[in-house]
Amino acid sequence: MASSSRSSKLLLALLVAAMVACPLSLAYDPSPLQDFCVADTVSSVFVNGLVCKDPAQVSAGDFAFSGLHNAGDTSNAFGSKVTLVDVRALPGLNSLGISMARLDIAPGGLNPPHTHPRATEVLTVVQGQMYVGFLATDGTLFAKVMSKGDVFVFPKGLLHFEFNCGASPAVGIAGLSSQNPGLIRAADSLFGATPAITDEVLAKAFRIDAATVQRIKAQFATKK
Q1: Using one digit for the tens of pLDDT, what is the confidence trace for 158-193?
Q2: Cystine design at 170: which of 109, 131, 164, 199 (Cβ 3.0–4.6 Å)?
Q3: What domain range is 83 assigned to?
Q4: Annotated binding site for oxalate: which residue ranges?
Q5: Residues marked as binding for Mn(2+)?
Q6: Are residues 168 and 195 in the same domain?
Q7: 161 and 59 part of one domain
Q8: Is residue 11 part of a domain?
């Protein structure tokens, strides 16, 4: 009976330990173990994140970024511009698991379908109107027309987009749950890959012929 009791207590202890350890093992960005870990952008050491700068060399400027008040240049094929403030732009973000961006979209413009493999995104519309949405893994579309002051969240890793459905420029401010959220544009990745994905693969995947694949690839020959 005593042996059974000891076994039960041991099992309970292991379960508690597993519950405590699990959130730590699932943490995505490195968690800070000191007040800050300003990125040393000139270090050649490769780690998961960026090496810390000597605290004696850190200044207030390492925690500041200026420029989000400036409108992005939307004179491109998509009619949109993302100004990203990640750890490369703001070294003080290193190990803090957060970044942000300004999104400018001209009337009729589009921030094309894309994913952030390392981050959930929450978008606040601060000007104009946007039709925004994301695709769940079962193909269900969750989309909505958003106006000034509205907020929409895109779950981590899911394909999403923003389209200016209004008559005036639209602006959004996004928060992302990673210092380096990453960006994979669906069309660019498939039709503008280097080296190229074979025509046969793309033709079969999209149920089109190889000639159509070639025409689409030509549109992505020069990425902007």
Answers
A1: 999 999 999 999 999 999 999 999 999 999 999 999
A2: 164
A3: 55-66+73-182
A4: 111, 116, 121
A5: 114, 116, 121, 160
A6: no
A7: yes
A8: no
